Amino acid sequence: MGTLVYEEISEGYTLREGTVHWTLDASDNKVNMQEMIHRAEKLYEGLSEFDQQAKARIAGELVTFKNDFWPEYDEDDPNLDWDRVDAGEYNVSEERFASCIRLLDIVMKQDYIYCEYDDGELFGGHRIHAYFDNDYNLIRADI
């Protein structure tokens, strides 16, 4: 993985090498750091596969919200073809959604994994927050 550095303010060990910022949260005095480091190393080794699956799950969770509340068209356009809108022609597909987002941060907690994604301008520059259990199942995603 690289060298983890303890940061007293956040009470966690961080890794700032590469494109993804990692934090192992040690703020809970019940945390087993050896076990957490082992989980982090395992995730680090399979990060590409995890990221691909996570993006697909996040897309499945948020694509309807995206299409309903963050449309890809200008509602004030007098020439907008509302029949095309109603037919879903402007909707973002799950595949496109997944390809737009980019993993920025991973925070390993005792009971879950928090991931923050760049939204690829799908939500006007807001970040996507995703929570996974320790078996990499999506718990929830929001912006």
Could you please describe the fold and organization of this structure?
With 143 residues, the chain is of the alpha+beta class. 34% of the residues lie in helices and 25% in strands. The protein is built from four helices and seven strands, in the order E-E-E-H-H-H-H-E-E-E-E. The protein has helices at residues 33-45, 47-69, 82-86, 94-100, and strands at residues 5-7, 12-15, 21-25, 102-108, 113-118, 127-132, 138-142. A seven-stranded mixed β-sheet has the order 1-2-3-4-5-6-7, covered by helices on one side. Helix 2 crosses helix 4. The longest helix has 23 residues, at 47-69. The chain is elongated and about 60 Å long. The mean pLDDT is 91.
Residue fraction in strands: 25-35%
| Mean pLDDT over the residues | 91
Shape type: elongated
Q: Give the strand line-up of the largest sheet.
A: 1-2-3-4-5-6-7
Helix share bin? 25-40%
* H/I helix tally: 4
Order of SSEs, N→C?
A: EEEHHHHEEEE
Stretches where pLDDT falls below 50 for ≥5 residues? none
Radius of gyration from the alpha-carbon trace, in angstroms: 18 Å
Report the sheet with the most strands, covering strand number, pairing sense and barrel closure.
7 strands, mixed
Q: Which structural class fits the helix and strand makeup?
A: alpha+beta
Distance between the termini: 28 Å
In total, the number of strands is: 7
Helix-strand layout with pairing:
Elements: E1 5-7, E2 12-15, E3 21-25, H1 33-45, H2 47-69, H3 82-86, H4 94-100, E4 102-108, E5 113-118, E6 127-132, E7 138-142
Parallel strand pairs: 3-4
Antiparallel strand pairs: 1-2, 2-3, 4-5, 5-6, 6-7
Helix pairs in contact: 2-4
